[in-house]
Write a structure and sequence with these properties.
Layout lengths: L14 H4 L2 E6 L1 H4 L9 H16 L3 E6 L2 H8 L9 H24 L4 E7 L2 H4 L1 H17 L1 E7 L13 H11 L4 E6 L20 E2 L4 H8 L10 H13 L3 E6 L5 H6 L4 E4 L5 H11 L5 E5 L1 H8 L9 E6 L6 E5 L5 E6 L4 H7 L7 H5 L13 E3 H9 L1
Parallel strand pairs: 1-2, 1-5, 2-4, 3-4, 5-7, 6-8, 9-11
Antiparallel strand pairs: 7-8, 9-10, 11-12, 12-13
Helix pairs in contact: 4-5, 8-10, 9-10
The structure holds glutamic acid.
Length: 391
């Protein structure tokens, strides 16, 4: 059962206790003994207790877990030392089954459903796939199945690999608008110098700006924990920071590693300057080139101003060349720009469904897409835009 029952005063709550959606990244070495290749079963049980406790507190949790290659290597009896790419991919294929099974067993015993999601870098960089991955992950959360994510190692070739799950986890945090990213590894956090070589090295407990000094500290920290050393952890923290998500690097080797963070174990927190919602709106406002223009009627304008999504019924015209997930400008009949957003449909699909009720989408397109052409989370109105810039 959960171990996180205590409820400290609001002011003293750790960002982990306050978070609505948490991404936890588990490094290989925490889960799999580096020498024997055995699964650390009792540690995994304690992690599962922590996960169960978060669920009891109604916090969403998504796990990004490494360990497939380490487990597969043992099962295949492969010798120690670096593996050729195709051999590590084969090991991942074998180990991933075991990894997913271990989570299913341990969380299943606590009444928690588990799902497996394998992602490649394309799923977060290509906007169409990004939108699909985001929708699937959000749906899994809604349906109450904890997603256990890993890189799709078997198909991710050298050029299109994250190669480390730290950045993958940060992309997942960004994609799902999470507000807390926990990077569990075998170091306590970011030190001012390599603590194994410098006795004066100090743990940095809080970082609010990730500048050159922080990068330099990471570069000097020495590496640990599978493929992701401190440099990739800082890269992950940077992605989370820009997405308005808190990130924490903590030594996960203790039992109940999440509870330990809440109870104040030494670790490094990265504190963002905005919320995930504001950061996402900033990204939509400024980060992308529009590739189309959607003209909407006065009813739709009113609905958007009241905080609703854009439905096909309110669209009167569409131009440009865009795919699902691309940025489009919204305007009224006299071409005054009203805002911008990510379209859930391509230009040709919008042409077919505009002016129609959402219930007709299936018969018009031959598939059941989203009811909204632009969901309100994917939309920034001009009035909001000036407010966001001021923040
Ligand atoms: N995807 C790899 C695995 O599951 C691990 C990548 C990493 O160590 O960050 O074995």
């Amino acid at each position: 059962m959960g171990q996180l029952g205590h409820t400290p005063q609001a002011g003293s709550l750790s960002p982990l206790a306050r978070a609505t959606r948490i991404i936890v990244k588990i490094g290989s070495r925490l889960l799999v003994h580096p020498e024997s290749g055995e699964l650390h079963a009792s540690w995994l049980e304690s992690l599962a207790d922590d996960i169960a406790a978060y669920r009891e507190r109604r916090q969403d949790i998504i796990v990004v877990s490494s360990g497939a290659i380490a487990l597969g290597r043992r099962e295949l009896g492969l010798a120690k030392g670096p593996l050729r790419l195709e051999v590590s991919q084969a090991a991942a294929a074998v180990g991933q089954i075991r990894l997913a099974h271990a989570y299913r067993e341990v969380l299943g015993r606590r009444g928690i459903r588990v799902s497996q999601v394998l992602l490649t870098i394309d799923d977060s960089e290509n906007r169409r796939r990004y939108l699909n991955a985001r929708n699937t992950l959000n749906t899994l959360v809604r349906l109450g199945a904890v997603a256990v994510i890993n890189e799709n190692d078997t198909v991710a070739t050298a050029e299109i690999r994250y190669g480390d799950n730290d950045r993958l986890a940060a992309r997942v945090a960004q994609m799902t608008s999470a507000d807390c990213l926990v990077l569990l590894s075998d170091v306590s956090g970011l030190y001012t110098a390599d603590p194994r070589r410098h006795s004066t090295a100090k743990l940095v407990s809080e970082v609010s700006v990730i500048d050159d000094d922080i990068e330099a500290m990471a570069g000097n920290a020495g590496t640990s924990d599978g493929s992701g050393g401190m440099v990739t952890k800082i890269a992950a923290a940077r992605i989370a920071h820009a997405a308005g998500c808190h990130a924490v690097i903590s030594d996960g080797r203790l039992p109940h590693p999440l509870q330990a963070i809440e109870e104040g174990t030494p670790c490094t927190w990265f504190v963002p300057s905005s919320s995930p919602q504001t950061a996402r709106k900033q990204w939509i406002s400024g980060g992308l080139e529009p590739s189309g223009m959607v003209t909407i009627d006065s009813g739709a304008i009113q609905a958007l101003r009241a905080g609703k999504s854009l439905l096909p019924a309110g669209i009167v015209d569409v131009k440009g060349s865009f795919q699902r997930g691309d940025m489009v400008i919204l305007c009224n009949a006299s071409e005054t720009v009203l805002g911008r957003g990510l379209s859930a449909y391509s230009l040709s699909d919008v042409q077919r469904i505009m002016g129609h009720n959402s219930s007709d989408i299936q018969s018009l397109l031959g598939y059941r897409g989203r009811d909204e052409v632009i969901h309100r989370d994917d939309l920034v109105l001009a009035a909001e835009q000036s407010h966001i810039v001021e923040e």
